[in-house]
């Protein structure tokens, strides 16, 4: 799971028990890192980790605070007395958010994750997001290696017979880990995709030098499924969660407020 997905999960979960447990683990890690922070410039990586963990703890505390408040508003400060189902009656026109926007907007994504989890199909969404994170990372690392190759006059990539490049090996391991978690026969749940597309991906991971395009075909297949399969984006657009999302984004017009 990528850091963005993890943070989104923290923002939408209703489990105070899980939030408290995660906060405790984060706090312990913060304490350990602070004991290693000597203030020297070479401790930059420690300071960066500390900053990230402090941010995660803040996200958790904000979510816990909202859950404990309850009262007249929900977790995103929307009035709790509104009859959201009334806005789903036939003939009511709602703003239609494209999938691309839903995936890139943090607020929309959090609602979509919540919806997909409610129908037990969150694996498709998490796969897409994890692949996107891998692709961006791979693209950057390969670009850096190519730049280094130009500067040194050598070959930044790995050829047959050469000692494996640690960066490339890590990229390959990360790609295979995503495959195993979502597409392999032992994956649970296993995404239902074209077997030929999946086999082609496995062959590339096992036999080729890492390339940021490895997952392109599989990711496009999942994107198409998320966009068109009735229970995914179309189903989300017909849910109460979607109406609440539009309200939070100020894209909702209450039918009762329209003039005749």
Automatic annotation (TrEMBL):
Family annotation (SUPFAM superfamilies): Regulator of G-protein signaling, RGS
Transmembrane segments: none
GO cellular component, one term: early endosome
GO MF terms, alphabetically ordered: phosphatidylinositol binding
PROSITE patterns according to UniProt: RGS (PS50132)
InterPro entries linked to this entry: RGS, RGS_sf, RGS_subdomain_2
Sequence ranges assigned to domain RGS in this UniProt record: 98-229
Database matches in Pfam families: RGS
Protein name as catalogued: RGS domain-containing protein
Lineage: Eukaryota, Metazoa, Ecdysozoa, Arthropoda, Hexapoda
């Amino acid at each position: 799971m990528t850091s963005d997905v993890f943070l989104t999960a923290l923002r939408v979960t209703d489990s105070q028990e899980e939030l408290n447990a995660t906060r405790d683990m984060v706090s312990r890690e913060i304490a350990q890192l602070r004991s290693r922070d000597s203030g020297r410039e070479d401790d930059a990586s420690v300071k960066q980790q500390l900053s990230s963990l402090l941010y995660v703890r803040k996200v958790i505390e904000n979510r816990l605070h909202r859950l404990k408040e309850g009262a007249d508003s929900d977790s995103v400060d929307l009035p709790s007395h509104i009859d959201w189902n009334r806005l789903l009656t036939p003939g009511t026109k709602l703003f239609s958010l494209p999938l691309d926007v839903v995936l890139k907007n943090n607020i929309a994504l959090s609602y979509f994750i919540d919806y997909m989890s409610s129908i037990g199909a969150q694996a498709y969404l998490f796969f897409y997001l994890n692949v996107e994170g891998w692709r961006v990372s791979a693209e950057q690392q390969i670009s850096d290696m190519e730049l280094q190759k130009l500067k040194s006059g050598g070959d930044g990539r790995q050829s047959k017979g050469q000692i494996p490049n640690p960066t490339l090996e890590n990229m390959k391991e990360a790609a295979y880990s995503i495959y195993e978690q979502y597409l392999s026969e032992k994956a649970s749940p296993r995404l239902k995709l074209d077997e030929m597309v999946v086999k082609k991906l496995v062959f590339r991971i096992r036999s080729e030098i890492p390339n940021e395009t490895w997952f392109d075909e599989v990711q496009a297949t999942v994107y198409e499924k998320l966009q068109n399969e009735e229970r995914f984006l179309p189903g989300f657009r017909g849910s109460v969660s979607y109406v609440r999302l539009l309200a939070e984004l100020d894209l909702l017009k209450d039918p009762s407020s329209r003039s005749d």
